Amino acid sequence: MIINVREGKARLSELVSKAAAGEEVLITVRGQPKARLVAVSARLEPPDLVSWAGELEERLARQPVPAGEDSSAAILDELRAERF
Fold first, then answer.
1. Would you put residue 68 in left (φ > 0), alpha (ψ -120 to 50) or beta?
2. In the structure, what pLDDT confidence band is assigned to residue 78 with cuts at 50, 70 and 90?
3. DSSP structural state of residue 63
4. Long-range CB contacts for residues 49-57, cutoff 8 Å, separation at least 24
5. CA 31, CA 8: separation in Å to the nearest integer?
6. Residue 64: phi, psi to the nearest 5?
7. pTM over 0.70
8. Alpha-carbon gap, residue 19 to 35, rounded angstroms
9. What is the pLDDT of residue 10?
10. What is the DSSP letter of 3?
11. How far apart are CA 28 and CA 25, in angstroms?
12. How far is the CA of 13 from the CAs of 33, 44, 70, in angstroms?
C-alpha cells in the first residue's frame, strides 16, 4: 500500500493494523517514498538496557570536561544540594 503522509496521519491506526497483519505500507512526501511501515518480527529481542546504559556511562566518563566549565554531573549535584 502506498499513502501520502497527510492521509497517513489521519489513518494511522488503520495503517498500523495493516502492517501488523503483514502488509507493507509505503509513506510518501510529495510523491517521494520517505518511510516504510512493516510489522515487527516476533523474533525481535528487546534491547539490553543495562548493557546499553553501562556502555553509555563508560563513553561519557572518557569524554574530557572542557577547561573552565562544570560538568553536567557537577551541575546536577549542585542543583540537588540546593533543593535540600
1. left
2. confident
3. S
4. none
5. 13
6. -70, 150
7. no
8. 13
9. 94
10. E
11. 10
12. 20, 22, 46
CA–CA gap between residue 13 and residue 58 (Å, rounded): 40
Q: Which residue has the cell 510518501?
A: 28
- CB of 3 closer than 8 Å to CB of 26: yes
Nearest alpha-carbon partner for 27 in 40, 11, 43: 11
Local structure of 71: helix, strand or coil: coil
22-74 pLDDT, tens digit each:
999 999 999 999 999 998 875 667 778 888 898 888 888 887 766 556 677 77
pLDDT tier, 15 (very low <50, low <70, confident <90, very high otherwise): very high
- Which three-class secondary structure state does DSSP give residue 35? strand
C-alpha cell at 45: 529481542
Residues near 26 by Cβ (< 8 Å), separated by ≥ 6? 1, 2, 3, 33, 35, 36, 37
Among the listed residues 52, 6, 5, the one whose alpha carbon sits nearest the alpha carbon of residue 28: 5
